[in-house]
Please model this.
Amino acid sequence: MTAAADAGDGTPRAGRGGPRSVRRSLASIVLGFETIVVFLGALVTFGLVTVSGVAGPINPITVLAGGAVLCLIMAALIPLLRYPWAYPIGWALQAVVVATGFITPAMFFVGAIFAAMWTYCMINGSRIDNQKEIE
Model:
């Protein structure tokens, strides 16, 4: 048995938890990349709010705090995707990312792209998982 297939305690990895679902794998990939993009979007929004010089309704610290909280929630959700209740939270996060477009209009486009990728992953991941169960 190779070191990659051995869990360290002598049991193979596949034997401990079984194979991962395609839906879960795809969802974790989307959330991982989305976390990076949301972080960068928060930095852009912070820069735009700070440079504008006009006192607006949004405090720059609020932008950073909101972006950090959103990124932390997304990163924390990735390992929780093993539970069925985590997927509705993922859908809610997609709506929140789209809603950030009210602060920075470019995030409407970014949020729509990630929401479309999330939808694709949920539909096709579930379809592939169901086909694997039938076989």
